[in-house]
Design a protein that fits this description.
By secondary structure, this protein is mainly alpha-helical. The protein contains eight helices and three strands; from the N terminus they run H-H-H-H-H-E-E-E-H-H-H.
């Protein structure tokens, strides 16, 4: 018995137990470093949406308005909403928290990112919160006040492209002269 135990001990010490394969240092994984976007003083401190991000912001606002109006119409059987109902929905759309939006840097250019905007590269740092929700809410209220609830709702009834055209790509829109962005993918539904 002693000889077997001694042989086992020698073999264990010479050959190892293989435990270091599972308990030792994990295998080396290539690391990547992605810096957060460097925001200018205007981007950090101004209460207004920077000019370079207004087109993205407009598309985000159009997406949120479209989603809110579509949900409200779904509750009444996809029929047209009464004026008082769509006014309430538009106010609610603009006063939401907007926390899912932020800024990231892509190929040296800052872009707004969030639901309804084209997805960006998977390896990037999103700076959200801070001034971005307030800026989006203020811009949304400005669009509703400037265009009017009835005109916005009428464009919504014609479809998402008509709403984006009215808010973003018209003569005075923040995307005027730019190519229209592709149709955004639907946001995941997180309703309980």
């Amino acid at each position: 018995m002693r000889a077997a135990l001694a042989a086992w001990l020698v073999l264990t010490l010479l050959g190892g137990t293989g435990a270091e394969d599972t308990c030792g240092d994990p295998p080396a994984v290539p690391s990547r470093s992605v810096p957060a976007p460097q925001l200018s003083p205007e981007e950090r401190l101004s209460p207004h949406m920077p000019e370079s991000l207004r087109c993205d912001a407009c598309h985000a606002i159009a997406f949120q308005i479209e989603e809110q109006l579509r949900k409200a119409e779904g509750k009444v059987g996809k029929k047209a909403l009464k004026e008082s109902d769509y006014i309430e929905v538009l106010e609610r759309s603009c006063s939401q928290d907007w926390e899912s939006y932020g800024v990231l840097e892509l190929d040296g250019q800052k872009r707004l990112s969030g639901p309804g905007l084209p997805s960006q590269q998977s390896l990037s740092v999103l700076v959200s919160g801070g001034p971005w929700p307030g800026r989006l809410s203020k811009l949304c209220l400005g669009y509703v006040g400037e265009r009017g609830e009835a005109q916005i709702y009428s464009a919504h009834r014609r479809g998402p492209a008509a709403l984006r055209q009215l808010l973003c790509h018209g003569d005075k829109g923040p995307c005027a002269g730019r190519k229209e962005r592709p149709e955004p993918r639907k946001a995941p539904q997180n309703e309980l």
